[in-house]
């Protein structure tokens, strides 16, 4: 989130990390962890967008970008969802993942068939 933007960070807009948990302790820990992640989101978002940009219109899987950035995929994958919500990444199809299941590939280039 830029310094110019005075709006509060929000998970639904892709400007804050999400939190999960069912017990009071898990919820408290999760909210605290998500709050810490939210503080680093602008830097991490820039890093992920730049990495996807190197793949052009073909795009890449989050696993590919995680490997490029030498980060765990569980750090990159949520950023992809946040950036998609913000319109900075676009889904470009499904591709076989590391475990054989199809995973979503993303690109910074908006596909022609994607609704405006």
UniProtKB/TrEMBL annotation:
Polar residues composition bias: residue spans: 20-40
Residues covered by region (Disordered): 1-40
Basic and acidic residues bias spans: 1-10
This protein's name: Uncharacterized protein
Biological source species: Qipengyuania gaetbuli
